[in-house]
Structure formats: C-alpha cells, structure tokens
Amino acid sequence: MTVAVLSGFVLALAAPWLVRATGRAAGWVTALLPLALTVYFGSLLGQIGAGDALNVTHSWIPALGMQFSLYLDGLGLLFALLICGIGTLIFIYSGGYLPNDPHLGRFLSMLLLFMGAMLGLVLADNVIVLFVFWELTSISSYFLIGFQHSRPEARAAALQALLVTGVGGVALLLGVLLLGQVGGSLELSTLLGRGNEIRAHPLYLPILVLVLLGAFTKSAQVPFHFWLPAAMEAPTPVSAYLHSATMVKAGVYLLARMSPILGGTDPWVALVTTVGAVTMLAGGTLALLRTDLKQILAYTTVAALGTLTMLLGMGTADAARACMTFLLAHAFYKGALFLGAGSLEHGAGSRDVDHLGGLWRTMPLTTAAAGLAALALAGFGPVLSFIGKELLLEAVLAQSPTRALLAPAVLAGSALSVAAAAIVGLRPFAGTRPDELSDAQEAPASLWLGPVVLAAGGVVLGLRPEILAEPIVTASAASVLTRREVADLALWHGPNPALAFSGASLVLGLLVYRAWPTIRRSAAARTWWLSWGGPSRWYELGLQALSWLAESQTRLLQSGYLRLYLIMILITANGLAAYALLARVRWQPIVLQPAVQLHDAFIGALILLGALAAAGSASRLGAVAALGVVGAGISLVYISFGAPDLAMTQFLVEAFTVILLVLAFYHLPRFARLSGRTARLRDVVIAGVSGTLVAALVLLTTTARRDSRIAEYFAEHSVAAAHGRNIVNVILVDFRSLDTLGEITVLATAAIGVYVLLRLRPEKGSTP
Amino acid sequence: MRSLILRTAARLLLPLLLLFSVFLLIRGHNEPGGGFAAGLVASAAFALHAFAEGLPQTRRMIRVDPISLLGAGLLVTAAGGVAGVLAGQPFLTGQWVSLAPVGLGHVDIGTPVVFDVGVYLVVVGAVLTIIFTIMEEA
Amino acid sequence: MNLFLLGTLLVPLLTGIACLLAWRRRTTQRGLGLAGATAHFGATLGLLWTVASDGIQTAQIGAWPAPFGITIVADLFSAIMAVVAGMMGLAVTVYSLGSMDARREEYGYYPLFHVLLLGVSGAFLAGDIFNLYVWFEVMLIASFALLVLGGERAQIEGAIKYVTLNLISSAFFLTAVGILYGMTGTLNMADLARALSRTAAPGLVTTVGLLFLVAFGIKAATFPLFFWLPASYHTPPVATSAIFAGLLTKVGVYALIRVFTLLFVQDPGFIHTLILVIAGLTMATGVLGAVAQNEFRRILAFHIVSQIGYMIMGLGLFTPLGLAGSIFYITHHIIVKTNLFLISGIAYRLRGTYVLKDLGGLYRTQPALALLFLVPAFSLAGVPPLSGFAAKLSLVQAGLAGQQYAVVATALAVGLLTLFSMTKIWAEAFWKGDTGESAATPRPGSAAGVRPRGLTSMFMPVVVLAAVTVAIGLAAQPLFTLTWRAAEQLLDPTAYINAVLGSPR
Amino acid sequence: MPLLLAVVIGGLYATALYLILRRSIVKLLIGLALLTNAANLLIFTSAGLTRATAPIVPLGSDRPPAPFADPLAQAMILTAIVIGFGVLAFMVVLVHRAVQAVGTDDLDDLKATDT
Fold first, then answer.
1. Which of B27, B116, B130 has the most D C-beta neighbours within 10 Å, making it the best mutation to test the interface with D?
2. A109: which of A230, A289, A551, A686 is 20 to 30 A away, CA to CA?
3. Where do the structural domains in chain D lie, given as residue ranges?
4. What would the mean pLDDT of C106-123 be, rounded to a whole number?
5. Mutate which of C133, C181, C294 to test chain D, going by most D C-beta atoms within 10 A?
6. Can you give the residue range of the structural domain that contains C392?
C-alpha cells in the first residue's frame, strides 16, 4: 500500500524524461501506473468489501507524532478506486489533449504528483500525514490551474484556489491537532473509537468549526464555492480530474471520515446540512446563468458537492448510502461530461453552448457519451446516478425533523440538475449546425475513450449494481456509520414517494429548460449584486484590504526616517525599563559611598556642561571640541578612581577621535537648525526619560553590588602565575586575551572598512 | 599646515615619541601602558610627521603598507596563542622563559608579551590606515 | 582540549589573517577563502559530532580556570548553530567565486567575509557575556565593511541606518553587561547563572533582562526593533545579502535564546510571555511588510523579520518542544533563506534586475532555476513535506500544548501570507511574461544566448542547499532528535554550568 | 559619589540620545561618540568606585595593597574603548561619504533605500 501511494511521486519525478522518450504515446504510457493501481485496489475489494480494514505504519517523525501510517477501509477504497480508475482515463486523455505542448512532461508530472497526494489523502491514517497530502493536492492544483501561465486569468485563478483552500488547510491543521490533543491520538483508526469523549469535550465546537472550514473550502461549499468555477482556467483533463471527480471531493471525504468522530451532534447536523443544501441550490441556480460548458459543469459540480455534504450532515444510514452511491455516480458522469466538453472544444473549437449545435452527426461518439452522461446528470435512465437520486430522495423523505425544509430544497435541486443536463446534453448536439462549425470533426481515440468509458461505466453500474457498486457502497457507508448495513442497490424500487418526487423534478426541470433563455435575460438584470457583493467580491476586497493594510503599515513603520526608528526603539526600551523599575523592583536605601569631594563635583559639572554644549552647539567644530571636553572629563574620573591605564587610553583615543572628526568634517558649513520646536521637545522628553532610567539603574546596581571574587583572583595570580604587575594589562594580554584578540580584530577590520569606503567607489576607477 | 615650526617639531618629536611608545609597550606589563596606548603614541608620531612633511614622505619613510601591519600584527598575536596549543595546552596559554642576562637581574619573556607586540602592530597599522586614507581623501 | 572546538574559531581567524597578508592578490585570496571555508565547515561538523557523542565541550582559554578566564563552550545548540554557519560560509564562498566582481574581491571581500565568520562562530561559542559582546562587535564591524564594500549610494544609505541602529543595540548590550557585572561581579555565563539564581534583587535582574531583550531584539530584528534590516539588506551584492540573511539576525536569536534560558529565568511569567507577544507581532508585521514589496530581495528581507517571530516563539513558550521547534526553525530558516537570496542573485545575473515585474519568463527559459526556487520558497511558507513544515508544526504543537491559541493562529495565518508572497514572486518572475519580449531580452551587456560567467559555481550551492532542504523535510527525525536534545540541555542548564565550572564543590 | 556619577551618566545618555535623534547626520555621529563614553563610565561606576590605588602590584610584593580598584572592569572598559574607537572611526568615514553622496547633512535626504 505504501508503494502504491509513493509510486505516483516517483513517477512524477521521471515524467519529463518519460515524455521525451515516448513522445506522443506519453499519455498511454503514464496511464499504466494508475491502471496497475486500479487493478491492485480492485483486488482488495473482496477483503475490504467484507468489512476488513488494512493498516500499515512506518516511523516518520515520531517526535511530532507523525508516523507514515495508512488505513484502508471501505471509504478509502472507494476513493482510491475513483482516483486510480478515473486517473487512468485522464492520463490517456491528457496525452491526446496536449499532444504538442512542450510542457506536457511538466503537466503529467504535476498530475502524477496530484494523484499520489490524493491517494495519500484518502488512505492516510495519521491526521498530520493526511494534512500533508491535503496541502500537496492544493499545491498541485495551483500549478495545474496555472498551467497556461501566460494568461493572467489563469494565474489569478490559481492563486485564488490556493488561498481559499489554503485558509481551509490552515484551519484543518489546527482542527486535527486539537483533535489529536483531545482524543489522545493522531491516528484516525484510533480516533474513530473515541467519538463520544471528543464530542463531550469543551474544545469540540472549535474543532468542529475548524475541520468543517477545511472541508467546506476544499469542497467548494457556499460561500467558498467561487474558486471552483474560476479554476476552470485549468486544462480540461484537470477540470475533470481534480475539480470534479476527485480533489474537490476531498472535503466530502473528510466529512465522511470525521462523521463517526465529530458527527451526529446538533451543531454538526445544522451546519453541514444547511451549508450543503444552500450550496446545492446556489450551484444549481448559478449553473443556469452560464453558457460556457465548463462553467455550467463547474456549477453543477458545486451543486453535487452540496448534495453530498447535505447527505453527510443528515447522518442517517440511508443518507450515508445515498451519499456514497451518488458520489460514485457523479464521478463517472461528471468526468464524462468534462472530458466531452474538452473533446468538443478540441473538435469544434468552442465550449459556448450558444455557439454550438447539431454536432451529433460529425461527433457521434462524443455525442453518445455526453448524452448518456447528461441523462445521468439529470438522474434518469438506467444509470447509477438514478439509483443515487432515488436513495437521496428516500433519505430526505425518511428523516422527519428536517424533511419539511429539505424536501423542497432537494426537489428544486433535482429540477435544476435536469435543466442543466438538458442544456449540456442537448444544446451542442441537437438542432442545426451553425456554419462556423463546418470544420468540426470527431476527436481522436485518446479523447473519446475517456468520455465513452465513463458514460458507459455509469450505465453498467446502474444496470448491474451488485457487481461493483454494492460492495463498495456497503463498505464505504459502513465507514461513515461505524456499523455495517448491506446496501441493496437496484434501479427499480417500485412505485414509492421518491419516484413521485423524481417525476415531479423531471417535469419542473424541463419547464425550467424551456424558459432558460428568458431566465438568463431576466437574471442578467437581477444578479448584478452578485458581482457587487458576492463571495468572490469579498475575496477581492480581502486582497485589496490586505495590500492596503500591508502598505500603510509599512509606510508607517518602515518610513525611511532613521530618527523615527530610533524613537520607536527608545520608546520600547523606556517603556519596558520603566515598567520593570516601577513594578518589579523593590527599592532599598542607596549607599552613597564614597562621598563626593569638591574636585569630583567639578569634574561632574565639566562633563555635563561639555555634553550640553555638544548637544547645543551650532558649529561642528564647537560640538567636536565639546566632545573632547567630555572625554577629558571622563579621563579625570578614571584618574581619581584608580584607573591610570584607562585615563591614558581614554585621553589618547579622545584626541584621535577629535582629529578624525576635524579631518572628515573640516570643510562643512555650520549646522542648520533642521527640527522644529515640537520635535525637539519630544526628543528632549524621550532622551530625558532614558537618561533618568539609566541613572536609576546605576544607583540600584551600586546597592545590589557584591565584591568580585574574579578581581580577587586576578590580584592573587597576576604576579605569581602571569608574571606581570599591572593587573589590568595582564588581564588584557593573558587572563582575557581572547577579548583582546577580538578587539584588535575589530580595529583592523574597521581600518579595512575605512580604506574600502574611501578607495572603492563606483565613480572612481579601480586604481588601488 | 606645513609650517617650518611644525616640520621642525615633527622632526624632533618623531624619534622621541617612537622611543616613548616602545617604552610604554615594554613596561606595560608592569606599569600603566601597554600595546594599545603605545601603538596610539607611535601612530601619533607618524601622523604628525605626515602632517608636517606630507603623506608621500611619511609613506616612503615607513616603507611598509600599514595594511600589511594589520595582518602581521594579528598573525603575531594568533601565533603566540597557537604556541600554547602546540605545547598541548589551551589556546592563548602563556609560555614563559626566564632569562637572566648579565647585569639586568631576572627577566621573564613570555607569549603574553609577544601578544602585546601584536596588539601594538595592529594598532599602528589600523590608525595609520585610517588617518592616511582620510588624508589622501581630503 | 577539543581541536574541533578551537578550530571553529581559529580557522576563520587564520584564514582572515592569511587573506589579509595576501592583500591585493586576488587569486590567492579566492583559494584561501575556499580552503578556509571548507576547513571551517569541517571543524564545525567535527564539533557537532563530538558534542553529540561526548557531551558539552569546553575550553578554558589561556588555561585560566573558569570563571576567571574566558571559557569557550559548545553545547548542542551552539554546535548546531556553528554547523549551519559553517555550511552557509562554504556555500556562499563557492557562490562568491562565481558572482563577486573582481574589484570587490581585490578590496578585501575575503578577509572581511572570514572575519564575519569568526565573529559569528565566536558568538556561538562564547561562554562569557563580555566575550559575547566582543564577538558581536567583530561580526558587526565585518558586516559594516561588507555592507559598504563597493560604495554605491544605496549601500551607503542603507549602511547609515544599519550601522546606527546596530550601534544603539551594542550600547544597550554594553550597558546591560556593565550592570550585570556590577551586580554579580562575574562575567562567565555559567557563573552568572548561579549568581542570578540566588540573587537578592530579582526585580533588578528582570530589568537587566529587558535591556538584553532590547539589545538582542534589535540584532535579531524583532518587532518593533527591526527597521535596520529592510533598510539595508537589499543594497549590497547578493552574496553579501545572502550571508547576512543567513547568519546575522540568527546570532541575535541565538543570544536571546541563550540568555533567556540560562540567565534570566527568574520571571518567565513576565519575560517569556512578553517574548511570545513580540513573536506574534514580529511574524505579522514582517509578513505584511513583505506583502507590500515588489522587489525580489526586499520581499525576502521582510520575510526574515517575519520568520524571526517563529524562532523566538519557541523561546516564549519555554517548553522542550517549543525550544526544539525554535532551533529546528533556525536551522531550516538559515538554509532556506540563504538559498532564496542566492537564487535571487542568479535571476539578477540572468536578467539584470531584482524588480519582479521586469524579471518575468524565467519558468520558460530556466526551468531548473524555477524548480530550485520552489523548494526553498515553499519550504519557507511551511508547505509540507519540506523542512519548514516540520519546523512550523513543532511550534504549533508546542503552542497548542501551552494553550497559546492566539500566537498559534498568528503563526498559521502568517504562514499562509508567506505562501501568498512566495507565489507573488513565482507568478511575477517565473510564470509571467512567457510570451512577452521581456523574456527574450538578455541581460544588458551580455550577448544573446551567451551564458553569463560564473553560473556554474552559483548554481552549485543552490542545488546542494535545496537538496538539504528536501532531505531535512522528508527525514526530519534525526535533526529533530538533535534539536530536542539541545532544547533539553537549554531548559536544564545544570549540565552546561557543570561543564564550564566543574561540578559544585 | 555614586549619586553624582549616576546623574552624570544619566545626563550623558540623555544628551547622546538627544543628539542621535537629530536630523543632522553629524550630530548623530557625535551622539554615538558620547554614547560610547557614557556606557564606559556606566561600567566603571557600576563595578564600584574605589578612591584608592590602581590595581598594580608594587615591586617586591605579590599582590596589590587593598583596597584596589576593580581591574576587570578596567580591562573591560579598555576593550570597549578600543572597539568603540574602531567602530566610530568607521562611522565617521561612512558619514563623511554619505554627506558627500547626498550633498547635505540632512538625514531626511537619506531614505531612498526604504520603501
């Protein structure tokens, strides 16, 4: 199983070379992998269908609770088969869809990466590993949507999908980590049995909301649905594979997976059912406002995802079975429709239903496939989706508390599907062929194979559900319900309320289809608010607000004014120090030893006056001279308190500093007074507070002071062990010679820096 | 700048200051002084000479490029430190020999003294590099 | 005496000296620089090996016993940092061989570079708070000189801010050291830890701790002290930007973690919570700054700020998992961020600009570069399973365990915004302009179709670093075990103190 | 005496920081120079003031007569002075070049490298 998950990634690395080696057959060759995987997972059907589950664990990052563990039960197997089975057809299709694209290798590589990630997602046992694959599907979706990257729309759509699902991803990560904390394990297989404790925990509601946010964004539920139609910028195989059959169902998978853990509570039922129902209706309605085939299909996908979500929200056994059946059916017919739309575009050069028509003659295979698939979309005929729809209706009608609300919604949703099915199934093919379509021709085998197989598959499964559908649906529904009830799937359930409902939706739907041109016209006038206040507009506003916030914050903080930076730093430091000194320090009487002598007072005054003069002087030389006075004053302090070395060095350094300053600024004019009164006052206050705080700190330190046994040690060993009587010098060259080594390195480097500054200039040549 | 008085003073002061700097360097281990202060005094001597006689003159007199003094000085200090390592002791461990030259009693020579000489060289090199470069700029 | 410990310091010192002695001999310096960087990396690897297997390594410089002389000491945290610094030193040296212009090489690029490495390594190994100050200054002065090397106006302007704010930081540092010494009479950090743990004036200790927080906060570029970084990092040649980006702020973070695990642990309820708040604000302001930028290196520079927030988040949480996450994050970040700068330099070499809208079309013409960009870019944003994910995950888990939901939410949201601005670079510089003329325009001054010189040695480190990023991401466990042990050493400093001072008598 | 020196140090910090906040880049420079001096004086004072002998061992003795001034603080300050000098020299030249490049002494003309 591990090999199965990882093989996609390995082949993804090799894909570009593979394409180079096999040329036009690349699609067929790469399809061998998903085919093999389909066979592999198919072979497990008996075992899993009987209720077994497989578990594999490899150690990965145990410190973070991450182990590479996989868990295959009915739900996982349903998805795995979908991913690999449809994947096989998609790879074949891609080879024919982009035969001469120089980037076919990258495309297939990304598609394989996606397939691997998706398989990992549905098979992961460890929730963090699940998240890892979840994110990888988002990333590969980003690159696939943006595949035609020279188009700005494609780039924007790619980013939009990434950000919307990214928000959900972040929420999901938080959610599952909290879940892991609450449930005491990060393994889904363990968590499945701890639903009761988790639902009783105070963190349950946050966890639920976070996980749902993840699922809803991924599965394009209202109000996050808008990224999905935009994602139709992707090449058609991607739309069929990621944005219809598999990736968008990851959210549904998550809901199904979490049902035993988080489901069944009032908030779950209320949130999931409502959001699902609303999405179903919104998707169905919006589909009718489009003429681009892929757009219509995208919105019907949104509607279908809403339906699935709603079913999972209900949480009954009927609903679970309906959900799984419908999910399987949808993958088949929607895949067929998308691929058919791609074939149409390939063969006829357009995807707009207003420009298409009468193509049944020239494109018979595509027509047949699309027709069958459209029937399935409508939910009628000998197809699996009919069974799904009947189950859906039964489930809705059976559940008493919400029936009053959901039944009309489902009726409307079904009717809208019928109308959409009529649009995509009839418009392009029936009627007369417009003249501009005279060049239309049937697509090559690689392009018709996919739609035909998928559409036919829906029929086969519908006629003989017991072969494949029943074991899968039974097993996967069992995963949702944590108990096993055999699903009895059949086309004909006899006359019952569901069938009546079905019939009603058919009639309603056909009525809507007849009125479609009128609806479009009047809707065009009434849905202006969608572009003005709809969710996709929120997204745009969000981005704008973000960049506004970013820019104004940056203008404010990174203003370019050095003194504002300094002010912010000083205010921070002042604030912190003042707080600590006032609130954290116990003040004690301060020892003022040794006492002040007259000449000390004189030196102190000299230093302060020098400093003030330096601050106030209007001439450079004056300020420099005042600086020298301060330095000299400090030398005097050093002399009075037993530091002759310091005094001498201080004096020499001060002299050199003054010389340097004079040399460098001799030619400059007097200072101009640049700051205004307020600014100066502000700076006086800030600097004054800093000075006061420093003074307080110094005083405090002198009280807290203890004698240094280090100094004592030096006094002891200076002569005896280090052969020197000037202890300060011995410290410098022996006890702490490493400091001195660093110090002269600084000095040497500073000299190089000065040299470089003055010698190496862009305007000067490179004369050394 | 190049007045006669300054030139005469510089000519007189140069040897005196250099001598004083060597004095400070040598006695630094036992009395106030040391490599840094000594280096500053020596630099002052050369700087004064450069002010008085002009930079080219001074450069010619010193002969070595101050920048190479930086490397040399650092090498001297580091080498003194590595000597300890070669003797199997930690980096910068002092290695001492006691000499008793006739008539001078007892003198200790050790790597810390060598270290101070390195400091001296670096200081002279650094200060002269800085001052000379600025003077050429002006 | 551990030769690797000493070598980590001595090799860059001696290389720097050798390069200085070979002043103006460019070819010699290139050879010396490469040899020195290789030897340094080797020494750091040896150091990490011995520390991991034999425990904390110390050396008493000058054979004076601690706390009287200066101790250099490497625990796991130091050793990990040293190894990453060594790796970056080597990577950027190789890159420089291809990218640095001859004039800058003649004017001391290599000696300055190795002095910088010396300062950084010294800071990681310092066991003495004043010695730490000295190494900080060594690192700073080398960075000053490197920053202005070339003397272009933008460099000078950036340097004014960089130098001023860093000098302010040094002044805070020196002030804090002075007060600390006044209170305790010692400078050895292990000795200080003992002294401070039985201090009679805890309030004063907290105050001094805050001074260190400001001093190192400036160096580490945390909120609201980071201004020097975005003002200057995009001005020097890219190799310089890259080594700065990789190492300088991280020395500040290192110092923060060191002093707030070893010295100032008396009042974690206040100081560490404060650090946590700063962490969140740093992440947010940094990433917003990046969102506002439109130039490759400026975006990257602001991201450094943002990422510093993550690095100190673990310190604020003050748990083994949090600190392990922080150290992991630092390691990952240094590799990834240096690499991103190196990649921006290749893009510059190919197109002659850093402005995103003028780059364009790199995806078509340079698919390899595109792939190499994606690895560190996604890793930076924390996309699994690259190194950034494991780093972020451990911090998030630690935050959740500590019930610090606000900072966790910030961390995750900022991750998303990081992804947003990485895709901005991707979309503008790589995806866009595929059909436009800009893609066909070669770099001004180079003939069409001719590969600009030096690309091979520029690509080499990029490839290696990207591979390391992937490796750390896929096989995070070994590194995580190491950082976990490092975190445990930090949280229980007894071993550190005993290694330096000897067991308590 | 600590009170007096504390006031002096506080005053030095205040004037230094005030100068650093000026728009004139040369004033900024002078402020930085003052700040280094102030920090050194702070170390000196915090380490304790001894109006007594320098830490030098008289000839013939093997330790200095107590009380002696703290030699470690002095060594620290010496190191700091030298470092401060080197850095300041660099800064002087940097400011010189900046003034040359911009043509004025006004920091507000130096904000092209920020956003």
1. B130
2. A230
3. 2-56+65-109
4. 95
5. C181
6. 267-438+453-491
Rounded to the nearest integer, the mean pLDDT of chain C is: 91
**Cis peptide leading into residue D67 (ω within 30°):** yes
Out of D39, D107, D110, name the one closest to residue C174 (CB): D39
pLDDT one digit per residue (tens) for chain D, 115 residues:
778 899 999 999 999 999 999 988 889 999 999 999 999 999 999 888 877 688 888 887 888 887 888 899 999 999 999 999 999 999 999 999 988 887 777 887 777 776 5
What is the span of the domain harbouring residue B128?
Answer: 4-137
pLDDT, one tens digit for every residue, chain B (138 residues): 457 787 888 888 889 999 999 999 988 888 888 889 999 999 999 998 998 888 898 999 888 889 999 999 999 999 888 888 888 888 888 888 777 766 656 667 788 888 999 999 999 999 999 999 988 876
3-class secondary structure, A483: coil
> Is C460 in CB contact (< 8 Å) with chain D?
no
A267 backbone φψ class: left, alpha, beta (φ>0; ψ -120 to 50) = alpha
Q: What are phi and psi of A222, to 5 degrees?
A: -60, 135
CATH code of domain D2-56+65-109: 1.10.287
Which chain A residues are Cβ-neighbours of B136 within 8 angstroms?
Answer: 758
Domain count, chain B: 1
- Verify whether the Cβ–Cβ distance A706 to C401 is below 8 Å: no
Which amino acid, A402? T
- Evaluate whether residue C341 is within a structural domain: yes
Long-range own/partner contacts, residues A596-602 (CB < 8 A, 24 or more apart): A596/D1, A596/D3, A596/D4, A597/D1, A599/A640, A600/A640, A600/D1, A600/D4, A601/D4
Residue C1's pLDDT is what?
56
Residue ranges, chain A, pLDDT below 50: 765-768
Residues of B in contact with C1 (CB under 8 A): 85, 88-90
DSSP state of D65: P
Q: What is the pLDDT of residues A61-92, one digit of tens each?
A: 888 888 999 999 999 999 999 999 999 999 99
Q: Is C119 on the interface with D (CB under 8 A)?
A: no
Across the interface, whether the CB atoms of A663 and B138 are under 8 A apart is answered: yes
Q: Count the neighbouring beta carbons within 10 Å of the beta carbon of residue C488.
A: 14
Tell me the pairing of strands B107-110 and C57-61. Answer: unpaired
Does C106 reside within a domain? no
Structure ipTM:
0.95
Provide the domain count of chain C. 1
Say what angle helices C238-262 and C109-125 make with each other, to 10 degrees. 10
- Does the beta-carbon distance from A646 to D81 stay under 8 Å? yes
Contact A37, A141 (CB under 8 A): no
Predicted pLDDT of residue C358: 84
Residue C365 lies in a domain: yes
Q: CA of C476 to nearest chain A CA: how many angstroms apart? A: 6
Shortest CA distance from C294: residue in chain D: D115
Nearest to D13 among A567, A623, A690 (CB): A690
- Between CA A340 and CA A362 the distance in angstroms is 14
